[in-house]
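Repro:
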Amino acid sequence: MTDPISAAQLQPLLQQTSWAKGRSIDGIQTMLEGTAIVLGAWEDDRLIGFARAITDSTYRALIDDVVIDTPKRGQGIGSSLMHQLVKRLTEMEVEEVFLRCGDQVVPFYQRLGFETSDGITMDLGQD
């Protein structure tokens, strides 16, 4: 899981999601270049899992864009990526790790030790 990830390899995975299906190759490349931690899971030369963390390496980290190829879900790939990601963040001694997710995946993240918070999530409205 240390192979470099290209935007062309990642785009098909992101197209399987509701939140990232419209991302362009150029945008994905910029995202990859600006992300502190990027992890991938591979089957031969095909990217089948992805997760990333945006962090200042000290105080905060946001886990984002965790996606597993639809036919490969339920095989432990997402759990493995998340364990590796959290391990890297705790090695950096990041104080707070958070993520935002849909209701349907809350049980997955709870099994990994994440808890729902009482905070309010706000989005900048974009019409």
